Amino acid sequence: MHALLFDIDGTLLLAGSGGPAMAAAARAAFGSVLEEYDVSFHGRTDTAIAGEYHAAHEAEHTPESHRVFQEAYLAALPGVLAGGDGRVLPGVPALLEALSAREDVLLGLLTGNFARGAATKLSHFNLDRYFDLSVGGYGDHSPDRNDVARAAVEVLPPGMDEVWVIGDTPADVTCGKSVGAKTFAVATGSYSRDELAECGADLLLEDLSDTPAVLRALGLS
């Protein structure tokens, strides 16, 4: 049995800018948002991003302030997705359809998104039917993506022959290696193929558009 743990943003889909939803979260948590503030979302957990917003606003990151920030972000996210220009990346529906039909594959998630944010994004782009959201690791509780990887692996059933982490950033490769998983990088996000090659991923493709090629690369042809 192969467990395939997918990142979401930049790997399965492009959700569009997350800035407006994070700005709504900042207004709820801090009463204002720094208009000139710029934060990188790529490869990071939502908890890490929330912590950076707290630091930028010189606010203590407490469990209560985190809850307010998270709830406001999740409340704003559906509207941001509906009004944005996001899209599913090439080949993803066909690949997930092929993988979900196999009895030797378990699909899961390894994403920095809050769990409810992950569910919202997958539902908006009609990809939620391919995943059991209980099989995965999410960015709710730690700023460290390696912690998310450990959480994802811990919920896998015993007896996996191979575990793959599939993502578009160096952080995906690093966290996969931290739990002994094989790593599969795709250059569909903000990092080039050359940049991803430097991370030492076990597999590297330009995108997921060729389902037979992806299956062969994973040893599933």
TrEMBL record:
Record keywords: Hydrolase
Gene Ontology molecular functions: phosphoglycolate phosphatase activity
Catalytic activity: 2-phosphoglycolate + H2O = glycolate + phosphate
Annotated EC: 3.1.3.18
Enzyme class name: hydrolase
Pathway: Organic acid metabolism; glycolate biosynthesis; glycolate from 2-phosphoglycolate: step 1/1
Pfam families the UniProt entry points to: Hydrolase
Claim: Heme is one of the keywords in the record: no
Keyword Hydrolase: yes
GO BP terms: DNA repair
Family indicated by similarity: Belongs to the HAD-like hydrolase superfamily. CbbY/CbbZ/Gph/YieH family.
Name under which the protein is recorded: phosphoglycolate phosphatase
Taxon lineage: Bacteria, Pseudomonadati, Planctomycetota, Planctomycetia, Planctomycetales
Gene label: gph_1
